[in-house]
Amino acid sequence: MDDEAGALNLSNWESRVPLHLAGYGIDQLLADPTALSQVVEFDRPRLGDISGLDAVHLQCHIGTDTLSLARLGARMTGLDFSPSAIAAARDLSTKTAVEIELVVADVDDAPEVLGTERFDLVYTGIGALCWLPDVRQWAGVVDALLRPGGRLFIREGHPVLWAMSDPRDDDLLVMEFPYFEVEGGTRFVEPKTYVDHDGELAQPIIVSYNHGIGEIITALLDLGFTITAFEEHRSVPWNALGDVMIEGDDGEFRLRSGGERLPLTYTLQARKPG
Question: Is 274 contained in some domain?
Fold first, then answer.
């Protein structure tokens, strides 16, 4: 990532933290020691038993998913480039009395900062890969962090979703932006974040990087990983497309009609050789 894009994205995420603290369901996590974040609750049947594993959550943001994975029994480390996000995650860890190692660092620096072949599980959640310009470099980071035989778990926004334009008045779904990785990424101005809030972000400019499904899978295969599971989903845990979506009882949003038209998220699991 070039210096300008990195600075813009960091400033943008720093400005999101206070808004997300009010919109991520933290009160429930504090009140109920068994509560899990909505994202991890969705992932739970696919995650299986992770108790006793050394696990790292890359791009952990304010730590709600990281805490939830720890509540499922993993020994958790969280890493994020936003100092404000990590400060919030540390506060959440302290208030819930759940021990989590939390580190401020770029993803690319994770092996140097955290150590190589240290983890049984690398977890990456929704809205992470789109901030990284080079999916092959990211795959190399995952490879370096995992012990031989270690596991990667991703649930991520589908690259088709990231390529969609804003909703049209006629509700037609249109792919406007790059599906494949493009050098330099795509610049957007987004005055609002994805949780309900008053006012606008202090720094609304972002640079986003899409990666096609084939590019992601190939980056892992080229390092010898075995793809053990891949599933596309018709739901996403926030309203990504305005009035054409409706919220379900599970807190996931789906298209009001014609849900078969569009994959919204996917789950990918892979195993490192060894």
Answer: no
Any idea what DSSP says for residue 92? Answer: H
Amino acid occupying residue 123: Y
Is residue 16 in a domain?
A: yes
The answer to whether residues 119 and 150 touch, using CB atoms and an 8 Å cutoff, is: yes
Helices (H) and strands (E) in the chain, counts: 9, 11
For residue 143, being part of any structural domain is answered with yes
**Which pLDDT band holds residue 197 (cuts at 50, 70, 90)?**
low
| Domain encompassing residue 132 | 3-269
Domain presence at residue 77: yes
Q: Are 43 and 64 in contact (CB under 8 A)?
A: no
pLDDT tens profile 59-98: 999 999 999 999 999 999 999 999 999 999 999 999 999 9
Does residue 57 sit in helix, strand or coil?
A: strand
Of 23, 248, 65, 257, the C-alpha closest to 153 is 65
pLDDT, tens digit (0-9, with 9 covering 90-100), for 212-239: 999 999 999 999 999 999 999 999 999 9
Overall number of domains in the chain:
1
Residue with tokens 């305005």: 242
174-181 long-range contacts, CB within 8 A, separation 24+: 177/210, 178/210, 179/210, 179/212, 180/210, 180/211, 180/212, 180/215, 181/133, 181/134, 181/135, 181/209, 181/210, 181/211, 181/212, 181/215
Collect all residues with Cβ–Cβ distance below 8 Å to 214 and sequence separation of at least 6: none
pLDDT at 32 over 60: yes
Calpha distance 193→16 (Å, rounded): 7
CATH number of the structural domain spanning residue 156: 3.40.50.150
Relative orientation angle of helices 213-221 and 135-145, to the nearest 10 degrees: 40
